[in-house]
Design a protein that fits this description.
Layout: H1 3-16, H2 21-28, H3 32-40, H4 47-57, H5 61-66
């Protein structure tokens, strides 16, 4: 797992869902500054929060963590 690449995917997904870091932080019950650290690859989320993000963004855990596949609904990216 590359934390920086995972952070980039989180940022891209958040932006593609027109969601602010603050909105995502509220959904995950964490601080907005922690979202910034995640997106920069400086920190990693707990497994439960990674699962929540995959549900929020409708992507597989494999895509979110490793970047290996597309959306749960079969779409790409």
């Amino acid at each position: 797992m590359n934390k920086e690449q995972m952070g980039e995917r989180i940022r891209e997904l958040r932006k593609s869902h027109n969601m602010s870091a603050e909105e995502l932080s509220e959904k995950l019950d964490m601080s907005g500054s922690f979202i910034g650290l995640l997106e920069r690859g400086a920190r990693t989320a707990s497994l439960s929060n990674v699962v929540k993000m995959s549900e929020i963004f409708n992507v597989s855990l494999d895509y979110l963590v490793l970047g290996n596949e597309g959306r749960k609904d079969g779409g790409n990216g």
